[in-house]
Amino acid sequence: MLALPKFIESLLFSPRGDRTAYLIGAGGIGMSGLGHLLLDAGVHVVGSDEVCNNEVMKLQQRGAKIFIGHDSQQVLAARPAVVVYSSAVPFTNPELQAVRAAGIPVVRRAVMLAALMHRSVGVCVAGMHGKTTTSALLAYALEQLNANPNYAIGALVPQLRRHGRLADGAPGKSNGRQKSLFVAEADESDGTLDEFQPSYSIVLNIDEEHMEFYRSFGRIRDEFLRFADSTSRTVLYCADDPRLKGLLSNHSRAVSYGFDSRAMYRVEHSEPLNGPWTSGFRIWRGKQKLGEFCIRLCGDQNVSNAAAVVALLTELGYEPGAIADAIAGFKGVERRQQMLYEDEQFTVLDDYGHHPTEIKATIAAAKRLGCKRLLVAFQPHRYTRTQMLFDQFATAFEGADRVWITDIYAASEPVISGVSGARLARAVSTAGCKAEFVATPTNLCVQLHCAVKSGDLVLFLGAGDITKAAHAFAEQLKDRQVLSTMCENLPGLLSSESRVCRNEPLAKKTTLRVGGPADWYVEPGSETDLAIVLKFCAERRIPITILGRGSNLLIRDGGIRGVVVCLNSPAFCRLEIVGDMLHCGAGVKLKNVSVEARRNGITGLEFLEGIPGSIGGALRMNAGAMGSWIFEAVESIRFIDYAGTIQERKSSEVYVEYRGCPLFKDHIALGAILKGQLAPEETIIKRMESFSEKRWDTQPAAPSAGCIFKNPAQVPAGRLIDELGLKGTRVGGAMVSDLHGNFIVNNRNATARDVLNLIEIIKDRAKSMRGIELETEVQILGDDPPN
């Protein structure tokens, strides 16, 4: 039995004396679980953490005193009997240095956890992959079997009251029949497995993991062999892991389980009872069939882990039928195949997998769910792990349809030159799986919202903070779907000439080629259908946005909520010439207007030739170029309000201003009559060629939204930006044009956030250096994605 240091013996088991423990990094998942165990044992818990997270607040609610921030004076003032720290706390921590200098006892988290297991029947779950789910399932099953277990799990488990609990209060109390069972997830990352000395142990696998600590696989083997030797009764090991089998198959207290035909507890697949989210299996013990089992988790790895629990419970004397009932209701652990969102279109899963073996297993399990496409977002964890397992990571994503890889989550490690998420993304692509690099979680959400289609499963992987992006993405999908559900009856109200789409990507519908999707996208087939859409949305207070040809428009990366209407069907694109008049629908391209005017000998509209928009958008913006505005050529307009009422008005009755027509803030243009003057075609052609030459000599060919800023009174915006030295300035894939300073171009896969950040840089420089407040001319619509 483990011999406890006197200061720990006194802390945990003495009714008198100083019973204060100080936890450095108390909000970490492992340390917070230990905090709950100590509180259950009657220990006064004090501690510190850099941030006040949910786990800190839960400890505080139970009476623990947790400081925010690390300070040497606060730990000394607490006068603890012992200070506990985890391997995540650096030796340079000021509290750790202070207590060591003061001679206060200091122990690792594993040492204190092992001490709490003292006088109990210890059951440890160890292995590089799957130990959190396995230990949680075991603790849950023992609760269902009325064993009232103690447990320490390395993650939050929704079906357990806490992730650390001493059910009987003080460690080692009897439950009336025998010593209480204590289930602990044993962390191998810092070489402390042999601290536990359990009665029973489960060893799931061994792998090349935590190599920054072990440096060689031989040392990993030695660590697990010592752990097996320290187990006093039974060591259950997975016979499907060849390296583990080679290590433990001849061990005197070892019992095997797995799909291997020679395993003592042999597993076979059977049909799941409740669809793709469950797994069915049967287990044989030698030649005896134990029974049929089912779990609410998918994938071979989860079946194997559940088999380990069944085997352990059998060794403890429980009947197979009772075991089957006990494990059947388990719903999993947070961040282990955790479903964040599911509807008839999309599924979003969050998973902690950060090692190539875990990635492969999780992708294989996800593919079993029957999705049309599997989209994977992965955040590499630690520079050392990425470097040492780089080639394995490159081939780990087979089965995914698309992969996005972020920057590496350092976990306090220094940067290693040449090791990066971008390099890994290239390696994954080279290995045959389409992968892209995205630097930030915000950009990751943007890319996923643009890419996701009906039938997709989106899987987030990683041990860092990518879970925040996963939750944010799921929440935004949820918000989108609430609005979208309100519109499900809309398609049935419209004629067959109308086009209605859900979650329609909008980036390619703008000239800048950025932006997220529309919840619903409608191209009405007639004015009658348009009126139906407008009334439908008005009655339900559904937001509605009118989209033209997408020029002079910047759609934010989160997309546009509600309904986006585009007057792009033939009914709105009619163009008729009557004398020197052009009768134009709102969807007619401005280029077509200028070309038809030329063909019919009508001058005065040549300036429209290079504007990449439609009549409707031009009326709303009072679009202009080459010194002319569209309303100078307008005879009359036809428009509709948001209640569906159509009106006509002469241009003389419409107030217009520079780059705007206020009427169209709450009305929608249906069309206009434009008036020119008759002239020889040769004259018109020369004028158009002159404008075209001037335009292409001074304006970029790359995707843009046209002029970004209105011209201030002091100086044209393009000249001002040039004088400020901002031409060529880049943010991500967005760049200030080298040809014209008032154009921002999409140089390479820009996001709306890149463009918006670049706009702010320009505005700040103009304000600070010239005292000029620049005002955007480009229309900015939609939502930012969640952070």
Question: Which terms would index this structure?
Answer:
alpha/beta, Protein-Tyrosine Phosphatase, Chain A, 24 helices, UDP-N-acetylmuramoyl-L-alanine:D-glutamate ligase, ten-stranded mixed β-sheet, Rossmann fold, 6 domains, 787 residues, single chain, six-stranded mixed β-sheet, 33% helix
The overall pLDDT, averaged over residues, is: 87
Could you give the order of strands across the largest sheet? 8-7-9-6-10-11-12-13-14-15
Q: Approximately how much helix is present in the residues?
A: 25-40%
CATH topology of the largest domain: UDP-N-acetylmuramoyl-L-alanine:D-glutamate ligase
Report on the structure:
The chain is α/β, with parallel strands linked by helices and 787 residues long. The protein folds into six domains: 6-109, 3-Layer(aba) Sandwich (Rossmann fold), CATH 3.40.50.720; 119-328, UDP-N-acetylmuramoyl-L-alanine:D-glutamate ligase, CATH 3.40.1190; 338-453, Protein-Tyrosine Phosphatase, Chain A (Alpha-Beta Complex); 487-566, Uridine Diphospho-n-acetylenolpyruvylglucosamine Reductase, domain 2 (2-Layer Sandwich); 573-691, Uridine Diphospho-n-acetylenolpyruvylglucosamine Reductase, domain 3 (2-Layer Sandwich); 700-781, Uridine Diphospho-n-acetylenolpyruvylglucosamine Reductase, domain 1. The protein is 33% helix and 24% strand. The protein has 24 helices and 40 strands. The strands form nine sheets. Strands 8-7-9-6-10-11-12-13-14-15 form a ten-stranded mixed sheet, with helices on both faces. It has a six-stranded mixed sheet with strand order 16-17-21-18-19-20, sandwiched between helices. A five-stranded parallel sheet has the order 3-2-1-4-5, with helices on both faces. The longest helix has 21 residues, at 466-486.
